[in-house]
From TrEMBL:
Gene3D superfamilies: Stage V sporulation protein G. It comes from the Bacteria. SUPFAM superfamilies: SpoVG-like. Transmembrane segments: none annotated. The gene is spoVG_1. This is Putative septation protein SpoVG. The lineage of its organism: Bacteria, Bacillati, Bacillota, Clostridia, Eubacteriales. One of its GO terms (biological process) is sporulation resulting in formation of a cellular spore. Pfam families: SpoVG.
Length: 100
């Protein structure tokens, strides 16, 4: 399986998502083998690093503990997706800075 595309939508202060969760810097989508698309992946900034957060299942919100609609089956798979997203995020941020 290959990551064939990564889309990044940068968020700005005043964006409703950032107002709700100030850690979120962007939203990502990843296409796998040009056949399967994972979207609404949050790029978050913690005190230590940037990381990704997969979208929770909206039907689990009332259960008291979130369940996720997409869950990588291993830490290796999660790091693979995270590395691709964060690399594209860094390019997008750099391009924005260069344009200013």
């Amino acid at each position: 399986m290959k990551i064939t595309d990564v889309k990044i939508r940068l968020l700005h202060s005043g964006d409703p998502i950032r107002d709700w969760d100030p850690r979120v810097r962007a939203i990502a989508g990843v296409r796998l083998d040009d056949k399967f698309y994972l979207n609404d992946i949050k790029i978050c900034q913690t005190s230590e690093r940037f990381c990704i957060e997969f979208p929770p299942n909206p039907y689990s919100a009332n259960s008291g503990h979130p369940e996720y609609t997409v869950v990588p089956v291993s830490m290796k798979a999660r790091r693979w997706i995270e590395a691709a997203i964060l690399a594209e995020y860094a390019k997008k941020v750099q391009a924005k800075r260069s344009a200013i």
